[in-house]
Specification:
The complex is a heterodimer of chains A (202) and B (626). Chain A is an alpha/beta fold and 202 residues long. Helices cover 58% and strands 12% of the residues of chain A. Chain B has helices at residues 2-16, 20-23, 43-59, 78-92, 106-119, 132-136, 153-163, 178-191, 208-217, 240-250, 275-290, 312-317, 338-341, 343-395, 397-422, 429-457, 469-487, 505-522, 579-589, 621-625; strands at residues 30-36, 64-70, 100-104, 125-131, 144-149, 169-174, 199-203, 223-228, 255-256, 269-272, 307-311, 330-332, 464-467, 490-495, 501-504, 532-539, 545-551, 593-598, 604-610. The longest helix of chain B has 53 residues, at 343-395. Classes of the chains: A alpha/beta (202), B alpha/beta (626).
Chain lengths: 202, 626
């Protein structure tokens, strides 16, 4: 959570790669440079993700192919494509495949930094959403089977009476389970609990 | 066939006809005896005899028989043999009656008169070569008539003085013969008029050697009158003409004479009494007599006026002016101008020269046209090649744009990074230094791409230089590297040790470019892993270079291999079919050859050769451009 997101620059052209790296670093980003798509994949830098600045045209695996590969491994990882002139058709395809941005070389600093900031924001958001759910799931895991049953039924809006009939238990027992679920899921209200159930269901 | 038969019949008929027409009217020939006072062979005798015979033969209706006898009395003492000669002649012409006797010179007439009664009784006589003054003083017998002649020394002297107005001396050359002395008398008389004005040297009573010697000593402005020499002081006999020839050779002064046998044989000129005319006049009288006229009825003919005649060669030899001559003077032996003398040859030569000139002109014009045409063709090749290069560049646009874009992109990013760094504390000097170095390198890189591109695209005058083909191959592969990467084609080289070649850099670059791009196109539909192109260079054995560009494409069908270099032949859907055609034109203009062959495995190899550097290809771009 506290890890700084890393901007990965993937470009086969050494001078371009170096220059971009420099610029991003000067702008305060953590940057890692890769000379090819394969190199990036093999390094498995997944735990230190932020966004990828990817040159479309490269020998070997090109930018598009890397995008496809990452879609499996790290869905939601923001990709900014860099391209030369005249590759507009490719750019459109890349955008449809989920790229967050598409920049034409030579790219100006404002545009580049804005795109990178945008990508990182999206990554952070992704990551926040991802962390929230993770917490709920952890809390959900602490529930006993009986509590999970109650939790599921509460989430559908059933009353204590209805639940007691459903699970063939005394209404008092239902109340007890319900209080325990509320506590374990750290829900402050019924609405809170329903929302948590909703997210877990997705 | 029918024509031949008709001819045969006509000829046969003609042969069978009796020759009636001519035979019956044939009259008996008339006999004419020419009796010469001198020797037969004397030029004067020959001249006179020929004139007589020719005139008689031309004028007579009846056939003539000519007999000639010569007394030779000018050299020999006639008295000693006259009786024997008369007897001889009587025997000689026994039974042949003469119809006419022509006596040439007074001595002959005398002989005729003395022996006529015996030898030629009743035969009419015509005389000629008779000095007028001799004829005047005597009478002639029955049946005798004739023509007289006179020499004109006075006019001859006058002529000499006209031509040599400054002359102070006259030399007169004469021999000891009867005729010589008779003529000399006339000259003496004529010279009397010039006494006091002209000093006279008499060269008579001399031997021929003395005459020649004396004449050779005469100053050039002397007037030399040549009278006649038939016998000299030593008693040796000559013909006048041969003595004249000797004198003329020796003399520094011009000679003048009065008889037409001299003209053309050494005299400059004179008032000439013509023996030929004398003979003609006598023959005309004879014709009248033979025609029936009585000789007695015909009076003795007075002499004709002597004519002024000069030898133009002698005039020139002594530097005498033709314009000083009297208007009626006849200039003979005029050296015909080159034009008159060789008119035909000149015309032929002129025609030849004109023809030759015309041919040369035609050839020059043709050559000029051909060169112009060749120049146009080369110009067109250059234009076409340029157009093709532009097309090639079009194909490569994406690759080229990428190549330029990369360094530009790096430069921008570096510059912007530097801007950000300038705000940092402390200033990262070392990093900024790196950035500047990188910017510089990228700028040069972009410049290099543009330079290469300009070389390829520029419309430049072809320039033949010595160049290293291996370096050229490397450069072209560099230009194509991005495009090859884009198309997934692996480019390889096997460069051998080769000598320099003579050629135009851009055009040869274009050939390589065309061949390699062609190879790339040919591999569009095979899997990327199998796409490769190899360029090989090697020495070709006789100093030249051979180059092979091989691809792994689908190859060219065997029946099309020979046609791949034709224009507008293409296996590509989007090609114009000019690439290989232009490549061939360029290679051939460089004196090389190009061909295509199928690889053993698959694909195609295009091979071309270029001659050694030293050998100048027939293509002369440079000169043409100049």
């Amino acid at each position: 959570m506290s890890k700084k997101p890393i901007v990965h620059v993937v470009d086969d052209d050494a001078s371009v790669r170096t220059a971009l790296t420099r610029l991003l670093k000067a702008a305060g980003h953590a940057v890692r440079a890769w000379a090819s798509a394969e190199e990036f994949l093999h390094a498995d830098a997944c735990d230190a993700l932020g966004c990828i600045l990817l040159d479309i045209r490269m020998p070997g695996m090109n930018g598009m192919e890397l995008q496809q590969a990452l879609a499996q491994l790290h869905p939601g990882l923001p990709i900014i494509f860099l391209t030369g002139h005249g590759d507009l058709a490719i750019g459109v395809r890349a955008m449809k495949a989920g790229a967050v941005d598409f920049l034409t070389k030579p790219v100006e600093r404002e545009a580049l930094l804005a795109a990178v900031a945008n990508a990182l924001t999206r990554d952070a958001a992704n990551r926040a959403v991802h962390d929230d759910l993770h917490l709920l799931q952890e809390r959900h895991a602490t529930l006993t089977p009986r509590e999970r049953e109650v939790f599921a039924l509460v989430a559908t809006g059933a009353t204590n009476k209805q639940i007691s009939i459903e699970i063939a238990a005394a209404e008092r027992t239902v109340k007890l389970h319900r209080a325990r679920v509320m506590a374990k899921m750290q829900a402050t209200s019924l609405a809170d609990l329903v929302r948590a159930a909703d997210r877990l269901r997705k | 066939m029918p024509l031949l038969r008709v001819c045969a019949v006509v000829i046969f008929t003609w042969l069978c006809l009796p020759p009636v027409a001519v035979a019956g009217e044939e009259a008996p020939p008339l006999r004419v005896l020419i009796l010469l006072g001198s020797d037969y062979s004397l030029p004067a005798s020959v001249l006179e005899t020929d004139a007589i015979r020719a005139t008689l033969a031309a004028g007579s209706r009846r056939p003539l028989e000519f007999y000639t006898d010569a007394l030779d009395a000018n050299r020999l003492p006639l008295a000693q043999y006259e009786a024997d000669l008369a007897e001889f002649l009587q025997r000689k012409y026994q039974g042949r009656k003469m119809d006419m006797v022509i006596a040439v010179q007074p001595v002959a007439l005398g002989f005729v008169e003395r022996h006529r009664a015996v030898l030629w009784p009743g035969t009419p006589v015509v005389f000629c070569a008779m000095p007028a003054d001799l004829a005047r003083g005597r009478s002639f017998g029955n049946g005798i008539t004739g023509v007289t002649a006179t020499l004109d020394p006075a006019s001859t002297l006058e002529l000499a003085l006209r031509l040599q107005p400054d002359a102070r001396q006259v030399a007169v050359v004469a021999g000891e013969g009867e005729f010589d002395r008779a003529m000399l008398a006339g000259v003496r008389q004529a010279l009397r008029r010039y006494q006091g004005r002209l000093q006279t040297t008499w060269l008579d009573h001399h031997t021929v050697e003395q005459m020649v010697d004396a004449v050779s000593r005469l100053p050039a402005d002397t007037i030399v009158i040549y009278v006649a020499v038939s016998r000299d002081a030593a008693g040796r006999v000559y013909t006048s003409r041969e003595v004249l020839a000797q004198l003329a050779r020796a003399s520094k002064a011009p000679l003048y004479g009065m008889i037409d046998t001299y003209i053309g044989h050494g005299i400059t000129g004179g008032y000439i009494q013509s023996l030929a005319i004398d003979g003609q006049r006598a023959a005309n009288l004879a014709l009248r007599v033979l025609g029936g006229e009585s000789a007695d009825a015909i009076t003795i003919q007075p002499p004709v006026v002597a004519e002024c005649r000069v030898d133009s060669r002698e005039l020139r030899r002594f530097g005498l002016r033709e314009h000083r001559l009297p208007a009626d003077c006849l200039v003979e032996f005029k050296q015909p101008g080159l034009w008159q003398a060789h008119r035909l040859e000149l015309l032929v030569a002129l025609a030849a020269i004109v023809l030759q000139g015309a041919v040369i002109t035609a050839l020059l014009v043709q050559r000029r046209r051909r060169r112009a045409a060749e120049f146009t063709v080369r110009q067109q090749l250059a234009d076409l090649a340029h157009a093709a290069r532009l097309a090639t560049a079009g194909e490569l646009t994406a690759a080229i744009a990428h190549e330029i874009n990369q360094p530009l992109s790096a430069i921008l990013s570096n510059a912007e990074a530097a801007e950000l760094m300038l705000a940092a504390e402390p200033l990262p000097i070392e990093e900024l230094r790196h950035i500047l170095a990188n910017i510089r390198a990228d700028d040069l890189r972009a410049g290099e791409v543009i330079r290469r591109l300009r070389g390829l695209l520029g419309k430049h005058a072809p320039e033949m230089v010595s160049l290293d083909l291996n370096a050229l191959v490397v450069e072209v592969l560099h230009l194509l590297a991005v495009e090859a990467r884009r198309r997934g084609v692996e480019l390889a080289t096997e460069l051998g040790e080769i000598s320099l070649v003579h050629g135009d850099r851009v055009q040869l670059q274009q050939v390589l470019l065309n061949l390699i791009l062609n190879g790339m196109d040919a591999m569009a539909d095979i899997p990327p892993a199998q796409r490769w192109i190899t360029v090989r260079t090697a020495a070709n054995g006789n100093g030249g270079v051979k180059v092979a560009v091989s691809d792994a494409g689908h190859g060219i069908p065997a029946d099309q291999l020979a046609h791949v270099f034709d224009s507008f032949t293409t296996t590509k859907s989007n090609g114009m079919g000019l690439g290989l055609s232009i490549a061939r034109s360029i290679i051939e203009a460089h004196g090389g050859k190009i061909r295509a062959e199928s690889n053993f495995g698959s694909g195609t190899t295009l091979r071309f050769t270029l001659p050694a550097n030293g050998r100048k290809p027939h293509n002369e771009f440079k000169q043409e451009q100049a």
